Amino acid sequence: MDPGRDVQPPWDLATLRERIPLLETTIPMNHCSQAPQTRATGEAAARYLDSWNRDGMDWDAWMAEVEAARTSFARLIGAAADEVAVFSSVSHATAAVASCLDLLRERTGRRAVALTEAEFPTVAHVWKAQARRGTPLRWIPVDPAAGRVPEEAVEEALDEDVLLLSAAHGYFQTGALLDLDAVVAAARDAGVLTYVDAYQSLGTRPLDVKRVGIDMLASGSLKFLLGTPGIAFLYVRRDLAERLEPAVTGWFGRADPFAFEPPRDSPLDWAPGTRRFDGGTPPVLPAYVARAGMDLLLDAGLEAVGAWTRALAGRLIDGGRERGLELMGPADPSGRTPTVAFRVADSHRVEVAMRRRGVLPSARGPAVRLAPHYHSTMEDVERALDVLVEVLA
Q1: Measured CA distances, 164 to 85, 130, 171 (Å)
Q2: Beta bridge partner(s), residue 139
Q3: How far apart, in whole angstroms, are the C-alpha atoms of residue 58 and residue 187?
Q4: 73 with 233: CB under 8 angstroms?
Q5: What is the model's pLDDT at position 4?
Q6: How many domains does the chain divide into?
Protein backbone atom coordinates (compact mmCIF):
# COMPACT_ATOMS: atom_id res chain seq x y z
CA MET A 1 0.00 0.00 0.00
CA ASP A 2 1.43 3.35 -1.04
CA PRO A 3 1.43 5.72 1.96
CA GLY A 4 0.28 8.56 -0.28
CA ARG A 5 -3.13 6.90 -0.60
CA ASP A 6 -4.00 7.76 2.99
CA VAL A 7 -3.06 11.43 2.73
CA GLN A 8 -5.52 14.31 2.73
CA PRO A 9 -4.82 17.60 0.94
CA PRO A 10 -3.84 20.57 3.13
CA TRP A 11 -6.32 22.82 1.33
CA ASP A 12 -10.07 23.06 1.78
CA LEU A 13 -11.38 21.00 -1.11
CA ALA A 14 -14.90 22.38 -0.88
CA THR A 15 -13.69 25.97 -1.14
CA LEU A 16 -11.27 25.13 -3.94
CA ARG A 17 -13.98 23.37 -5.93
CA GLU A 18 -16.31 26.37 -5.66
CA ARG A 19 -13.76 28.22 -7.82
CA ILE A 20 -14.14 25.76 -10.72
CA PRO A 21 -17.59 26.25 -12.29
CA LEU A 22 -17.50 23.05 -14.37
CA LEU A 23 -17.54 20.96 -11.18
CA GLU A 24 -21.13 22.02 -10.52
CA THR A 25 -22.34 19.75 -13.32
CA THR A 26 -19.46 17.54 -14.44
CA ILE A 27 -16.58 15.42 -13.18
CA PRO A 28 -13.49 16.31 -15.25
CA MET A 29 -11.13 13.32 -15.41
CA ASN A 30 -9.35 14.51 -18.55
CA HIS A 31 -6.60 16.74 -17.17
CA CYS A 32 -4.16 14.82 -19.38
CA SER A 33 -5.95 16.53 -22.29
CA GLN A 34 -7.47 19.78 -20.99
CA ALA A 35 -7.87 21.36 -17.58
CA PRO A 36 -11.20 22.92 -16.59
CA GLN A 37 -11.48 26.68 -16.35
CA THR A 38 -11.03 28.12 -12.88
CA ARG A 39 -12.40 31.45 -11.75
CA ALA A 40 -8.79 32.70 -11.62
CA THR A 41 -8.03 31.74 -15.22
CA GLY A 42 -11.39 33.06 -16.44
CA GLU A 43 -10.78 36.37 -14.69
CA ALA A 44 -7.28 36.55 -16.18
CA ALA A 45 -8.68 36.14 -19.69
CA ALA A 46 -11.28 38.81 -18.93
CA ARG A 47 -8.55 41.23 -17.82
CA TYR A 48 -6.90 40.96 -21.22
CA LEU A 49 -10.19 41.29 -23.11
CA ASP A 50 -11.18 44.30 -21.00
CA SER A 51 -7.81 45.93 -21.65
CA TRP A 52 -8.09 45.30 -25.38
CA ASN A 53 -11.63 46.68 -25.43
CA ARG A 54 -10.86 49.67 -23.22
CA ASP A 55 -7.47 50.76 -24.54
CA GLY A 56 -7.26 49.25 -28.00
CA MET A 57 -3.69 48.30 -27.18
CA ASP A 58 -1.72 48.31 -23.96
CA TRP A 59 1.52 46.84 -25.19
CA ASP A 60 3.57 47.44 -22.04
CA ALA A 61 0.99 45.77 -19.80
CA TRP A 62 0.57 42.86 -22.20
CA MET A 63 4.30 42.23 -22.44
CA ALA A 64 4.57 42.46 -18.66
CA GLU A 65 2.02 39.64 -18.41
CA VAL A 66 4.03 37.52 -20.84
CA GLU A 67 7.09 38.11 -18.68
CA ALA A 68 5.11 37.18 -15.57
CA ALA A 69 4.05 33.90 -17.20
CA ARG A 70 7.67 33.22 -18.17
CA THR A 71 8.71 33.81 -14.56
CA SER A 72 5.98 31.56 -13.14
CA PHE A 73 7.05 28.73 -15.42
CA ALA A 74 10.66 29.22 -14.38
CA ARG A 75 9.63 28.98 -10.72
CA LEU A 76 7.78 25.73 -11.41
CA ILE A 77 10.92 24.03 -12.71
CA GLY A 78 13.60 25.69 -10.55
CA ALA A 79 15.09 27.80 -13.35
CA ALA A 80 15.74 31.50 -13.95
CA ALA A 81 13.37 33.52 -16.13
CA ASP A 82 16.12 34.23 -18.70
CA GLU A 83 16.43 30.47 -19.23
CA VAL A 84 12.85 30.24 -20.52
CA ALA A 85 11.48 31.04 -23.96
CA VAL A 86 7.81 31.48 -24.86
CA PHE A 87 6.22 29.61 -27.77
CA SER A 88 2.77 28.86 -29.11
CA SER A 89 3.12 25.06 -28.77
CA VAL A 90 5.55 22.31 -27.84
CA SER A 91 5.69 21.44 -31.55
CA HIS A 92 7.07 24.93 -32.21
CA ALA A 93 9.53 24.66 -29.31
CA THR A 94 10.79 21.26 -30.48
CA ALA A 95 11.23 22.52 -34.02
CA ALA A 96 13.29 25.45 -32.71
CA VAL A 97 15.56 23.06 -30.79
CA ALA A 98 15.90 20.81 -33.84
CA SER A 99 16.79 23.80 -36.02
CA CYS A 100 19.99 24.60 -34.13
CA LEU A 101 21.60 21.17 -33.84
CA ASP A 102 23.77 21.48 -36.97
CA LEU A 103 26.20 23.76 -35.14
CA LEU A 104 26.55 21.22 -32.36
CA ARG A 105 27.09 18.43 -34.87
CA GLU A 106 29.99 20.35 -36.35
CA ARG A 107 31.52 20.87 -32.92
CA THR A 108 31.00 17.36 -31.55
CA GLY A 109 30.96 15.07 -34.58
CA ARG A 110 27.79 13.47 -33.22
CA ARG A 111 24.79 13.27 -35.55
CA ALA A 112 21.95 11.13 -34.16
CA VAL A 113 18.87 11.83 -32.06
CA ALA A 114 17.68 9.08 -29.71
CA LEU A 115 13.97 9.20 -28.90
CA THR A 116 11.54 6.97 -27.10
CA GLU A 117 8.44 5.44 -28.62
CA ALA A 118 6.55 7.04 -25.73
CA GLU A 119 6.96 10.48 -27.32
CA PHE A 120 3.74 12.32 -28.03
CA PRO A 121 3.33 12.16 -31.82
CA THR A 122 3.92 15.88 -32.37
CA VAL A 123 7.43 15.66 -30.86
CA ALA A 124 8.23 12.49 -32.78
CA HIS A 125 7.01 14.11 -36.00
CA VAL A 126 9.51 16.96 -35.61
CA TRP A 127 12.36 14.46 -35.29
CA LYS A 128 11.05 12.38 -38.20
CA ALA A 129 11.08 15.54 -40.31
CA GLN A 130 14.72 15.98 -39.32
CA ALA A 131 15.43 12.39 -40.37
CA ARG A 132 14.38 13.33 -43.90
CA ARG A 133 17.11 15.97 -43.74
CA GLY A 134 19.82 13.56 -42.72
CA THR A 135 19.46 13.15 -38.94
CA PRO A 136 19.77 9.47 -37.92
CA LEU A 137 17.16 8.41 -35.36
CA ARG A 138 17.64 5.82 -32.61
CA TRP A 139 14.20 4.56 -31.55
CA ILE A 140 13.88 3.33 -27.95
CA PRO A 141 10.92 0.95 -27.62
CA VAL A 142 8.09 0.86 -25.12
CA ASP A 143 7.83 -2.42 -23.20
CA PRO A 144 4.25 -3.41 -24.14
CA ALA A 145 3.76 -5.59 -21.08
CA ALA A 146 4.82 -2.86 -18.66
CA GLY A 147 3.33 0.03 -20.67
CA ARG A 148 6.48 2.08 -20.24
CA VAL A 149 9.99 2.69 -21.54
CA PRO A 150 12.64 0.82 -19.50
CA GLU A 151 15.41 3.11 -18.31
CA GLU A 152 18.03 0.51 -19.22
CA ALA A 153 16.81 0.59 -22.84
CA VAL A 154 17.40 4.34 -22.88
CA GLU A 155 20.90 3.93 -21.52
CA GLU A 156 21.74 1.24 -24.10
CA ALA A 157 20.72 3.54 -26.97
CA LEU A 158 23.18 6.31 -26.04
CA ASP A 159 26.15 5.41 -28.23
CA GLU A 160 28.99 7.69 -29.32
CA ASP A 161 27.04 9.00 -32.34
CA VAL A 162 24.02 10.25 -30.34
CA LEU A 163 23.93 14.02 -29.93
CA LEU A 164 20.59 14.41 -28.16
CA LEU A 165 18.10 12.28 -26.22
CA SER A 166 14.44 13.28 -26.60
CA ALA A 167 12.34 11.76 -23.82
CA ALA A 168 8.80 12.22 -22.53
CA HIS A 169 8.69 12.36 -18.74
CA GLY A 170 5.13 11.01 -18.73
CA TYR A 171 3.91 8.55 -21.36
CA PHE A 172 0.74 10.09 -22.80
CA GLN A 173 -1.02 6.75 -23.32
CA THR A 174 -0.51 4.99 -19.99
CA GLY A 175 0.70 7.74 -17.64
CA ALA A 176 3.94 5.86 -16.86
CA LEU A 177 6.81 8.05 -15.68
CA LEU A 178 10.37 7.83 -16.92
CA ASP A 179 12.99 8.03 -14.17
CA LEU A 180 14.57 11.32 -15.18
CA ASP A 181 17.32 11.12 -12.56
CA ALA A 182 18.52 7.83 -14.05
CA VAL A 183 18.29 8.65 -17.76
CA VAL A 184 19.64 12.20 -17.48
CA ALA A 185 22.63 10.94 -15.48
CA ALA A 186 23.24 8.25 -18.12
CA ALA A 187 23.01 10.83 -20.90
CA ARG A 188 25.43 13.15 -19.13
CA ASP A 189 27.92 10.30 -18.67
CA ALA A 190 27.61 9.48 -22.38
CA GLY A 191 28.08 13.11 -23.47
CA VAL A 192 24.48 13.32 -24.75
CA LEU A 193 22.21 16.36 -24.39
CA THR A 194 18.71 15.87 -22.95
CA TYR A 195 15.44 17.31 -24.22
CA VAL A 196 12.48 16.47 -21.96
CA ASP A 197 8.80 16.80 -22.87
CA ALA A 198 7.12 17.37 -19.48
CA TYR A 199 3.63 18.13 -20.83
CA GLN A 200 2.01 15.09 -19.19
CA SER A 201 3.65 15.49 -15.78
CA LEU A 202 4.38 19.13 -15.00
CA GLY A 203 2.03 20.53 -12.39
CA THR A 204 1.51 17.20 -10.64
CA ARG A 205 4.81 16.92 -8.73
CA PRO A 206 7.97 18.91 -8.08
CA LEU A 207 10.52 18.99 -10.90
CA ASP A 208 13.84 20.81 -10.51
CA VAL A 209 15.75 20.98 -13.79
CA LYS A 210 18.92 22.12 -12.01
CA ARG A 211 18.93 19.27 -9.52
CA VAL A 212 18.26 16.65 -12.20
CA GLY A 213 20.66 18.25 -14.68
CA ILE A 214 18.24 18.51 -17.59
CA ASP A 215 19.62 20.46 -20.56
CA MET A 216 16.29 21.38 -22.21
CA LEU A 217 12.65 20.94 -21.22
CA ALA A 218 9.35 21.96 -22.79
CA SER A 219 5.71 22.00 -21.72
CA GLY A 220 2.47 23.67 -22.62
CA SER A 221 -0.11 24.87 -20.10
CA LEU A 222 -3.46 23.37 -21.06
CA LYS A 223 -3.19 20.10 -19.12
CA PHE A 224 -2.13 19.86 -15.48
CA LEU A 225 -0.92 23.48 -15.48
CA LEU A 226 -4.58 24.58 -15.58
CA GLY A 227 -4.17 26.76 -18.66
CA THR A 228 -5.31 27.00 -22.24
CA PRO A 229 -4.04 26.02 -25.70
CA GLY A 230 -1.86 28.50 -27.54
CA ILE A 231 1.17 28.83 -25.27
CA ALA A 232 4.18 26.69 -24.35
CA PHE A 233 7.52 27.23 -22.66
CA LEU A 234 11.04 26.01 -23.37
CA TYR A 235 13.82 25.82 -20.80
CA VAL A 236 17.39 25.72 -22.08
CA ARG A 237 20.31 25.66 -19.67
CA ARG A 238 21.90 29.14 -19.85
CA ASP A 239 25.43 28.16 -20.85
CA LEU A 240 24.06 25.80 -23.52
CA ALA A 241 21.66 28.42 -24.91
CA GLU A 242 24.53 30.85 -25.46
CA ARG A 243 26.08 28.32 -27.86
CA LEU A 244 22.94 27.78 -29.95
CA GLU A 245 21.57 29.69 -32.95
CA PRO A 246 18.04 28.52 -33.81
CA ALA A 247 16.95 28.77 -37.42
CA VAL A 248 13.33 28.85 -36.23
CA THR A 249 13.36 32.42 -34.94
CA GLY A 250 11.65 35.80 -35.04
CA TRP A 251 11.94 39.40 -33.99
CA PHE A 252 11.67 38.72 -30.27
CA GLY A 253 14.73 36.48 -30.51
CA ARG A 254 16.90 39.51 -31.39
CA ALA A 255 19.14 41.47 -29.03
CA ASP A 256 16.96 44.55 -29.60
CA PRO A 257 13.60 43.56 -31.08
CA PHE A 258 12.44 47.17 -31.17
CA ALA A 259 15.35 48.55 -33.21
CA PHE A 260 13.19 48.36 -36.36
CA GLU A 261 16.11 48.70 -38.74
CA PRO A 262 15.47 48.14 -42.46
CA PRO A 263 15.12 44.33 -42.89
CA ARG A 264 18.00 44.15 -45.36
CA ASP A 265 20.36 45.83 -42.90
CA SER A 266 19.12 44.43 -39.59
CA PRO A 267 21.55 41.98 -37.97
CA LEU A 268 20.68 38.38 -37.16
CA ASP A 269 21.94 38.86 -33.64
CA TRP A 270 20.72 36.99 -30.58
CA ALA A 271 19.00 37.92 -27.36
CA PRO A 272 20.91 36.80 -24.27
CA GLY A 273 20.26 33.38 -22.75
CA THR A 274 17.26 31.33 -23.77
CA ARG A 275 15.35 34.42 -24.87
CA ARG A 276 17.11 33.93 -28.21
CA PHE A 277 14.56 31.13 -28.76
CA ASP A 278 11.64 33.56 -28.60
CA GLY A 279 9.98 33.92 -31.99
CA GLY A 280 7.37 36.36 -33.19
CA THR A 281 4.78 38.32 -31.26
CA PRO A 282 4.08 36.27 -28.13
CA PRO A 283 0.68 34.70 -27.32
CA VAL A 284 -0.63 37.42 -25.03
CA LEU A 285 -4.11 36.14 -24.12
CA PRO A 286 -2.86 32.58 -23.38
CA ALA A 287 -0.07 34.11 -21.26
CA TYR A 288 -2.64 35.77 -18.99
CA VAL A 289 -4.41 32.43 -18.51
CA ALA A 290 -1.21 30.40 -18.18
CA ARG A 291 0.19 32.63 -15.46
CA ALA A 292 -3.02 32.41 -13.44
CA GLY A 293 -3.10 28.61 -13.66
CA MET A 294 0.54 28.15 -12.74
CA ASP A 295 0.26 30.54 -9.81
CA LEU A 296 -2.60 28.47 -8.38
CA LEU A 297 -0.30 25.43 -8.29
CA LEU A 298 2.64 27.40 -6.91
CA ASP A 299 0.40 28.66 -4.12
CA ALA A 300 -0.83 25.13 -3.36
CA GLY A 301 2.71 23.72 -3.34
CA LEU A 302 3.78 20.96 -5.72
CA GLU A 303 4.83 18.60 -2.93
CA ALA A 304 1.27 18.64 -1.58
CA VAL A 305 -0.24 18.46 -5.08
CA GLY A 306 1.93 15.42 -5.79
CA ALA A 307 0.92 13.66 -2.57
CA TRP A 308 -2.80 14.16 -3.20
CA THR A 309 -2.74 13.21 -6.89
CA ARG A 310 -0.78 10.04 -6.05
CA ALA A 311 -3.50 9.17 -3.55
CA LEU A 312 -6.17 9.71 -6.20
CA ALA A 313 -4.25 7.65 -8.76
CA GLY A 314 -3.76 4.90 -6.18
CA ARG A 315 -7.50 4.70 -5.60
CA LEU A 316 -8.16 4.62 -9.35
CA ILE A 317 -5.78 1.66 -9.65
CA ASP A 318 -7.26 -0.22 -6.70
CA GLY A 319 -10.83 0.63 -7.68
CA GLY A 320 -10.24 -0.48 -11.25
CA ARG A 321 -8.82 -3.78 -10.04
CA GLU A 322 -11.84 -4.30 -7.78
CA ARG A 323 -14.15 -3.70 -10.74
CA GLY A 324 -12.27 -6.06 -13.09
CA LEU A 325 -10.80 -3.36 -15.33
CA GLU A 326 -7.55 -3.97 -17.20
CA LEU A 327 -4.89 -1.48 -16.11
CA MET A 328 -2.32 -0.21 -18.59
CA GLY A 329 1.04 0.90 -17.18
CA PRO A 330 2.53 0.66 -13.67
CA ALA A 331 0.40 -0.43 -10.72
CA ASP A 332 2.43 1.75 -8.36
CA PRO A 333 1.05 5.33 -8.32
CA SER A 334 4.50 6.71 -7.53
CA GLY A 335 5.68 5.43 -10.92
CA ARG A 336 3.13 7.32 -12.95
CA THR A 337 1.42 10.65 -13.44
CA PRO A 338 -2.13 11.00 -12.04
CA THR A 339 -3.30 9.60 -15.39
CA VAL A 340 -4.57 6.03 -15.04
CA ALA A 341 -5.33 4.17 -18.25
CA PHE A 342 -7.65 1.20 -18.73
CA ARG A 343 -7.74 -0.95 -21.85
CA VAL A 344 -11.07 -0.93 -23.69
CA ALA A 345 -12.27 -2.14 -27.10
CA ASP A 346 -13.43 1.21 -28.49
CA SER A 347 -12.03 4.10 -26.48
CA HIS A 348 -13.71 6.84 -28.50
CA ARG A 349 -17.16 5.27 -28.06
CA VAL A 350 -16.50 4.85 -24.33
CA GLU A 351 -15.42 8.51 -23.99
CA VAL A 352 -18.56 9.76 -25.73
CA ALA A 353 -20.81 7.57 -23.58
CA MET A 354 -19.10 8.64 -20.35
CA ARG A 355 -19.43 12.30 -21.30
CA ARG A 356 -23.17 11.82 -21.68
CA ARG A 357 -23.20 10.59 -18.09
CA GLY A 358 -21.34 13.63 -16.76
CA VAL A 359 -17.79 12.26 -16.53
CA LEU A 360 -15.06 13.58 -18.85
CA PRO A 361 -12.41 10.94 -19.65
CA SER A 362 -9.81 11.05 -22.41
CA ALA A 363 -9.47 8.38 -25.10
CA ARG A 364 -6.08 7.50 -26.60
CA GLY A 365 -5.71 4.47 -28.84
CA PRO A 366 -6.71 1.35 -26.86
CA ALA A 367 -6.96 3.29 -23.59
CA VAL A 368 -9.53 5.31 -21.73
CA ARG A 369 -7.58 7.58 -19.41
CA LEU A 370 -8.86 8.93 -16.12
CA ALA A 371 -6.73 11.84 -14.95
CA PRO A 372 -7.72 13.65 -11.72
CA HIS A 373 -6.00 16.74 -10.33
CA TYR A 374 -5.54 18.52 -7.04
CA HIS A 375 -9.16 19.69 -6.89
CA SER A 376 -10.54 16.16 -7.47
CA THR A 377 -12.08 14.11 -4.66
CA MET A 378 -12.18 10.40 -3.87
CA GLU A 379 -15.91 10.58 -4.63
CA ASP A 380 -15.04 11.83 -8.12
CA VAL A 381 -12.76 8.82 -8.56
CA GLU A 382 -15.41 6.31 -7.47
CA ARG A 383 -18.06 7.89 -9.69
CA ALA A 384 -15.74 7.90 -12.71
CA LEU A 385 -14.95 4.21 -12.22
CA ASP A 386 -18.63 3.32 -11.79
CA VAL A 387 -19.57 5.18 -14.97
CA LEU A 388 -16.77 3.47 -16.89
CA VAL A 389 -18.07 0.07 -15.77
CA GLU A 390 -21.66 1.05 -16.68
CA VAL A 391 -20.59 2.04 -20.17
CA LEU A 392 -18.54 -1.09 -20.71
CA ALA A 393 -21.47 -3.22 -19.58
Answers
A1: 19, 13, 19
A2: 115
A3: 45
A4: yes
A5: 46
A6: 2
